[in-house]
Design brief:
Layout lengths: L1 H18 L24 H12 L12 H16 L3 H7 L10 H14 L4
Helix pairs in contact: 2-5
Length: 121
């Protein structure tokens, strides 16, 4: 009888220790974000939003009216980013048309996208 109790307790302890050992991951780890050339991880949400705005894919609806209060500061920031772009990209992007039509998050996303996509040499 004591052998049976001893065998049952050893079996129970071994089952519990196997489950608690960390050998089984109930959920696989998340996929890591891609890294840019400098090795810094790219934020996929900001990159995707900036890409959608710059390429005008239709995923982001920009307002048709221009906010005159935002147009000046946004135009200055977009001109600075546009100056760092290659000439062929600068002509196609037409960032000046976005001034006054972006929210703060969209403006930051556009700047982030262009800085990752076309890094400064």
């Amino acid at each position: 009888m004591t052998r049976f109790v001893l065998l049952a307790s050893v079996t129970l302890i071994s089952i519990v220790s196997v489950c608690a050992s960390g050998s089984y991951v109930p959920r696989p780890p998340r996929k890591l974000a891609k890294a840019d050339r400098t090795g810094v991880a790219i934020d996929p949400e900001r990159y995707g939003l900036g890409r959608a705005v710059v390429l005008r894919t239709g995923e982001v609806r920009l307002p048709t009216t221009i906010d005159e209060g935002l147009k000046g500061p946004q135009a200055d920031r977009l001109r600075g980013v546009e100056a760092a772009l290659p000439a062929e990209v600068r002509d196609k992007a037409q960032l000046g048309a976005l001034a006054g039509r972006l929210t703060a998050a969209e403006l930051e996303a556009v700047i982030y996208y262009l800085s990752v996509r076309f890094p400064a040499p």
